[in-house]
Amino acid sequence: MAFVLGAHFSPMTCKVVNNTHAHADDAAYIRRAVDLSEKSAGFTSPHPNFGCVIATSTGKVAGEGYLYAQGTKPAEVLAVEACGERCRGATAYLNLEPGDCHGDHTAVSALVQAGITRAVVGIRHPLQHLRGKAVCALRSQGLQVDVLGEDLQSKVMEEARKSCLIVNAPLIHRACSRVPFSVLKYAMTLDGKIAASSGHAAWISSKMSRNRVFELRGRSDAIIVGGNTVRKDNPRLTARHGSGHMPMRIVLSQTMNLPEEANLWDVSEASTIVVTQRGARRNFQKYLASKGVEVVELDILNSRDVMEYFHDRGYLSILWECGGTLAASAISSGVIHKVFAFVAPKIIGGKNAPTPVGELGMVEMSQALDLIDVGYEQIGPDMLISGFLQPVPDLMPVIPSEDETFAIDPTVTPYESSIISFYKTWDPYGAFSNFSPHPIQMPDRDDNYVTWSSVEHYYQAQKFAGVNDPAAQDCVEKIKAMRSPEEAARVGRSMQRQHSDLVRSDWESMKIDVMYRALKCKFSIYPHLNSMLLSTAGSVLVEASPHDLFWGGGREGEGLNYLGRLLMQLRSEFLGESSTSTENTCSAL
């Protein structure tokens, strides 16, 4: 089914609904979609949270679903499958406007083909190149689409809309401020201490509170601590949920005054990055690198620059578990968005006992920072107090999507640039990523075609393909079974690191060819991807990973950018084939 994504729509054609009872029902279903959207937290690295609830005309929930990870079935598809024939004439409730990868209208198509007649959308997509597209597509197919805050306005709707903003706060903050969404977490006694005067801090909070912290870690891309925490506490900073996403562990140290032995230097379970100032203890940097720890040098080590760097690496959400000095620096830099404070019913006293936040330069209580949307929750004997230091940016007023803008002003040309960067699948050119949700079929060693969920699944599995060891075949099958490209990458890299003896001996010389064949398959079998690639003719394609200096371009162009090179090579080949085909046609005429 074809969709006119560029169709212009005037908000003035919408009918404002004022029925209080209908608003209450709509709001309840949207909040249910919000709750569903959080179900994947802790199993994949943070991504946009999508939930979908389908309710019949009688008000009964007939189907629901949530996005497990980028590259897996959309929430809307899962809800439609659960609903079946009851979709006819039903209403779909979405906490977030669908944001399909370029040319993939699976979510929209599922709702239209199932016979859904109305869709209620909590918020439009926060990313500009996706914003409004699905809303336009659904309306162009005859569905009534009501967007909270635009078409449905009431107090109960505003509360439901707020929950939609909060559940996708990481993506919204990242889009608006160009830094990851950062949460400061700490545990303190009733008299405001995070350790005794001696520095001893195990344990302030209860086991139940610590389990909640593991959950918070699992929802985050990374955890940040300072050098002092490494020296005094020797933490592991793992999520400890037994499986699923393990956040990156980040240590900030200006001088690299760090111990030679530390739990964080063991990267068998989770990876570690040490960020330092340029030139600090180069020999120790080499020592850490020999243990598999990545070291990143910045010209000046401050919280804002660190967050901008990790924004460039594609991180959405970061948990700060640092001491008071670093916490104060991060707050002063304006990079902390939310606070989780676990308060234990204990008193330890001590004039020199450390507190959770160091000097902020405030001398009067009127200067104190007030939390917004404060929440209170008792966890065992402890009290969890949470709140935002910065409000979640509001997406109002509506900013037209690029398609809508083009409909108004045809002189506007989207993506006009000589260098085209891509990284995350939700970026404008995200379909170029190996993580895009485009299955491919590749022949095995017996020339039997096997379906892989993504290019990344295939690439990671080929590290172990053909090795005469049952354990290597187990690696292939485990990677193939992963539900998302992110998980396939994590498992493949972990197995390569832990079981290097199972990696095929020719891998380093063959990996470029493996990637080339997978990409050629992908861009050959999907016409819209082929057209997208050809449309970039004349532009340099750069995989914008700042840390993968082989496949990516690096932060300052120091990377080899082999993924971008392969795509440009394929583009040239496809253009050549197109040119040859045209010449043959002309000759025949």
Secondary-structure map:
Blueprint lengths: L19 H18 L13 E5 L5 E6 L8 H9 L7 E6 L9 H9 L3 E6 L9 H8 L3 E4 L7 H13 L1 H9 L3 E9 L17 H12 L3 E5 H7 L14 E5 L19 E6 L4 H9 L3 E5 L4 H10 L4 E4 L3 H9 L5 E7 L27 E8 L2 E7 L13 H7 L10 E4 L17 E4 L5 E4 L2 H7 L8 H12 L3 H14 L8 H19 L1 H8 L5 E4 L18 H27 L1
Parallel strand pairs: 3-4, 4-5, 6-11, 6-12, 7-8, 7-11, 8-9, 9-10, 15-18
Antiparallel strand pairs: 1-2, 1-3, 12-14, 13-14, 16-17
Helix pairs in contact: 1-5, 2-3, 13-14, 13-15, 14-15, 16-17, 16-18
Pathway: Cofactor biosynthesis; riboflavin biosynthesis; 5-amino-6-(D-ribitylamino)uracil from GTP: step 3/4
GO cellular component, one term: chloroplast
EC number: 1.1.1.193
Could you explain the architecture of this structure?
- The protein contains 18 helices and 18 strands.
- The protein has 589 residues and is of the alpha/beta class.
- It has three domains: 11-167, 3-Layer(aba) Sandwich (Cytidine Deaminase, domain 2), CATH 3.40.140; 172-388, Dihydrofolate Reductase, subunit A (3-Layer(aba) Sandwich); 415-580, YbiA-like (Tetracycline Repressor, domain 2, Orthogonal Bundle).
- The strands form four sheets. Strands 10-9-8-7-11-6-12-14-13 form a nine-stranded mixed beta sheet. A five-stranded mixed beta sheet has the order 2-1-3-4-5. Strands 15-18 form a two-stranded parallel sheet.
- Helix 13 (455-461) packs antiparallel against helix 14 and helix 14 runs antiparallel to helix 15 (485-498).
- The protein is globular, with a radius of gyration of 26 Å.
- The two termini are 34 Å apart.
- Residues 1-18, 397-402 and 582-589 have low confidence and may be disordered.
